[in-house]
Amino acid sequence: MSDRTSAAVPGAGPRRFLRAALARIPLPLRGLRPRLLTSFVLVAMASSLGTGALAFREARTGVLQQSQDSVINRFRASVDAVAPAIPLAPDQSDLQFAVDQVRYANRSSDWRIMAAYGGHRAYAPNPGFVELSPEMLRSVRDRRVAVFQRMNVDGRPRLVVGMPVTYTSDEGLETMLSGLVMYLEVPQTTEEGYVEAMVRGIERATLVALCLAVVLALLAASGVLRPVRALRRATRRMAAGHLDVRLDVSGSDELADLSQSFNETAAELERTVRELRRLEAQGRRFVADVSHELRTPLAAMSAVTDVLDLEGEGETGEALRLISEGTNRLSGLVNDLMEISRFDAGAAELNRDEIDLAESVRRTVASRWRQEQVETRLPGPGELRARVDPRRLDVVTANLIGNALRHGEPPVRLTMGVRVDGAGTTWAVIEVTDNGPGIAEEDMPHIFERFYKASTSRARSESSGLGLAITAENVRLHGGRIRAANLPSGGAVFTVELPLHRDDTDTAADTGAGGGSTR
After folding, report:
1. pLDDT, tens digit, for every residue of 216-236?
2. Residues 148/135, Cβ–Cβ less than 8 Å
3. Helix (H) or strand (E) holding 235
4. What is the CATH number of the domain that holds 477?
5. Are residues 398 and 378 both part of a single domain?
6. For residue 385, what is the DSSP state?
7. Could you give the number of structural domains in the chain?
8. Residue 384 · residue 428 · CB < 8 Å
9. What is the mean pLDDT of residues 234-242?
10. Secondary structure of 308-348 in the HEC alphabet?
11. Which residues form a coiled coil (predicted)?
């Protein structure tokens, strides 16, 4: 026994998830217009947010960089101005003098200054300074340039600058650290205000872009949906049988190509259907003409063979009997073909008369079969009356019983009753059952098709395959229904339902091409 392994299809999971998500969307929202609108809005939102985020980042960087450079330059100038007055080993008073001078030079700004040398600290305007990070302390100790760090103190942005004070060696060749470091802490509320103003501006621009995207989406959807709706109307008209429908083609885009392809398809379909109808009409006319032409000589042949049957003896009599049977079958086939031709041509008519259905069926059975061949269960005289065509009811009954006797096993049972459906319509129900093998499931859909024979071994049987077709057409002509099924205990059952209490001016439902079969 071999082991089988299944490999996962790449992308199958996301596709299933997408299909499941789309299935949850309400049906009205799955149309082309909502999808176009959603696509435009999503694209506009992504574009606006992406552009806004990029613009915000660049503008914010520019604002903060400009403010930072300005502060550092001013701080450097102030420190450079006071540095010459500071001794190489300043004490606490020297540090306080330095921070006071720097603070005084920038008294209009909200600066906090701190000077650090060794273990000494000096502050201006008052003690208190933001806690410096170890990284900044290390950078100021090791580098000879100003360093800065943006910090958030109590929810407010602040810029902290550390500037080491250097001096030049006696030879003037090297810049050396003096150990003195000046620190600056300055709030950036103004810059933060500028940033918030930019955010509000980007939000307004995004809202405007979304509104514009909705308008553009509606315009685009209208332009796209107009030919699509025209195509939908045209296909519906074509489905209704109007094969001459055509679309107006304008432009040279894909929708124009689609409209042109539809017109070409419609034209080819119209030509094909016209040709098929012509061939079908020609075939029906041919069958009708041939049947009509054969009817007269066959009638004469039947009369002659009947006379010869009475006189023939021995081998001659047997030959005459075979000729007589073949002639009779051929005459029946011609009559069936002529009946089918009348149905196809729409020339079949009902000659209704109010009759006792049970009595009519009883006469049909008595005139054709022996009592032990057909069991009947019929209503009493006068209990079930209806306006039907007696001749066609006789054909329906005779064909169903004859089919059951040929392909089932006697006795054949015929029952008749009345049924009222949920809509309040009263139906006369005729059921014909047999004890045969029943109908194969694969043959059930074709049982009423013309010339269909369920068994290929009976392809040359005495049955023409038109009996059930004519039966179905006669039932439909009365506005009734017919169906076939198998009994659980074995055998087939054919059920005919004819509506009662119909006015004789009623027309039958569908008298189009039916189907016929023998089992």
Report:
1. 777 777 777 777 788 888 888
2. no
3. helix 189-239
4. 3.30.565.10
5. yes
6. E
7. 3
8. yes
9. 85
10. HHHHCCHHHHHHHHHHHHHHHHHHHHHHHHHHHHHHHHCCC
11. none
390 or 280, greater pLDDT: 390
Residues 103 and 134 in one domain: yes
In degrees to the nearest 10, what's the CA dihedral of 136, 139, 140, 142?
A: 160
Which candidate, 447, 445, 496, places its Cα nearest to that of 468?
447
* In 81-155, beta strands by DSSP E: 112-117, 120-124, 147-153
Q: Which residues neighbour 244 within 8 Å (Cβ) at sequence distance 6 or greater?
A: 266, 270
The burial of 349, by beta-carbon neighbours within 10 Å (0-12 exposed, 13-18 middle, 19 or more buried), is given as exposed
Burial of 166 (0-12, 13-18, 19+ CB in 10 A): middle
Instruction: Note the pLDDT of residue 519.
Output: 46
Alpha-carbon span 283 to 445, nearest angstrom = 25
Q: Are residues 90 and 182 in the same domain?
A: yes
Cβ–Cβ < 8 Å for 129, 107: no
Are 427 and 448 contained in the same domain? Answer: yes
Residue 53 tokens read as 């985020």
Asked if the structure places residue 53 within a domain, the reply is: no
| 341 and 471 co-located in one domain | no
- Contacts of 67 by beta carbon, 8 Å cutoff, 6+ apart: 159, 188, 190, 191
Sheet of 374-377: strands edge to edge? 374-377, 412-420, 426-433, 492-499, 481-486
Please check whether residue 161 is in contact with residue 147, taking contact to mean a CB–CB distance below 8 angstroms. yes
- Residue 462 tokens read as 């005495």
Which one of 307, 329, 348 terminates a domain?
348
Question: Looking at the structure, do residues 382 and 508 belong to the same domain, yes or no?
Answer: yes
Tally of CA atoms within 13 A in the half-sphere of 489 that contains its CB: 4
Query: Using only C-alpha atoms, what is the Rg of the chain?
Result: 51
Residues 6+ apart with CB under 8 A from 277: none
pLDDT digits (tens, 9 = 90+) for 122-145: 888 877 787 788 888 888 877 778
Distance from C-alpha of 295 to C-alpha of 332, rounded to nearest angstrom? 10
- For residues 164 and 247, membership in a common domain is answered with no
**Which two structure tokens, joined as six digits, stand for 195?**
């940033």
User: pLDDT per residue over 257-274, tens digit each?
Assistant: 888 888 888 888 888 888
Residue 497 has pLDDT above 90, yes or no: yes
Pairing type for strands 517-518 and 452-453 reads parallel
Domain range enclosing 186: 80-191
In a domain, 203, yes or no: no
The pTM of this model reads: 0.45
Specify whether the backbone of 124 is left (phi greater than 0), alpha (psi in -120 to 50) or beta: beta
Interhelix angle for 32-82 vs 189-239, to 10°? 170
Domain annotation covers residue 226: no
Both 310 and 428 in a single domain?
A: no
